[in-house]
Design a protein that fits this description.
Radius of gyration: 20 Å
Number of helices: 2
Shape: elongated
CATH topology: Phosphorylase Kinase, domain 1
Mean pLDDT: 83
Length: about 100
């Protein structure tokens, strides 16, 4: 009886580990930059905690905003930002350097 309990416990632990791995990998998200008005853009990024969470999401969002504006010879100005445990939502405009 004890051997079957150990086997079942190992099986459940393996399933939990697999679910954690799959969830962590699947939770990364990038909305892409979308125009919300004249020279007003929005971007949402989600990064799993295991990959840096909200801080990494914020870093990536700001870098993408800068890259986007640099294509037109401008720089990004963040007009609004909300950072959560794993997400960063930013609104930005492109302004002259």
């Amino acid at each position: 009886m004890q051997a079957s309990f150990v086997a079942i416990s190992r099986f459940i632990l393996a399933l939990a580990a697999d679910a954690t791995f799959i969830t962590g990998c699947a939770s990364a998200y990038n909305s892409g930059i979308s125009e919300k008005g004249p020279n007003t853009y929005f971007l949402e990024i989600r990064t799993p905690n295991s990959k840096g969470g909200g801080a990494e999401s914020s870093r990536q969002a700001k870098a993408q905003a800068e890259e986007y504006c640099a294509k037109s010879g401008k720089t990004a100005r963040i007009t609004d930002e909300e950072t959560g445990p794993v997400t960063a939502d930013i609104f930005f405009t492109c302004v002259a350097k």
